[in-house]
Amino acid sequence: KTEVSENEKLPPDGTFDFAKYSYYRFPLPFVSNLASGKGMLTTEVAIATYGNTLAGEKVIEQLETLNPKIRSAINLKLSDQNLSDVDTVDKRNKLAKMLLQEVRILVDGPDMDEPSAITDFYFIKFVISGAQ
């Protein structure tokens, strides 16, 4: 009998299905005015998940199903930012962590008993225009 850990699943063909990262990239960019009304923020984002193939596909399906709800939450948070909130890499990383928590709450629910399969939130593009 072959022992399989929690992160692995033994498919019928006998090969191992090791846990791996999968990425969900939103098909459209996020465009939002800055809170001050002086400038616009355009971002493209991706969300990383970690798990075996079946678990990863399930999370990607959830992200696709919840796309409008997640986009709305991200857009609301982005429109709440001032230029001074996103003008350095450290501040953008802080924003990414905040958005990661928002996405986790929407996908996993507010009472997360287990670790989330959603591991990271990435800015693929981050452009501030028209800010003074």
Keywords:
132 residues, alpha+beta, 3 helices, disordered N terminus
Walk me through the structure.
35% of the residues lie in helices and 26% in strands. It is built from three helices and four strands. The chain has helices at residues 53-65, 67-79, 89-108; strands at 20-25, 30-33, 40-51, 118-129. Mean pLDDT is 85; it is low at 1-5.
Task: Indicate the topology.
Elements: E1 20-25, E2 30-33, E3 40-51, H1 53-65, H2 67-79, H3 89-108, E4 118-129
Antiparallel strand pairs: 1-3, 2-3, 3-4
Mean of pLDDT: 85
Unreliable residue runs: 1-5
Oligomer: single chain
Count of distinct strands = 4
Q: What proportion of the residues is helical, as a percent range?
A: 25-40%
The radius of gyration over CA amounts to: 18 Å
Largest sheet: 4 strands, antiparallel
> SSE order, as H and E?
EEEHHHE
Distance from N terminus to C terminus (CA atoms, Å) equals: 66 Å
Structural class: alpha+beta
Shape assignment: elongated
Strand content: 25-35%
Number of helices: 3
Short characterization:
With 132 residues, the chain is an alpha+beta fold.
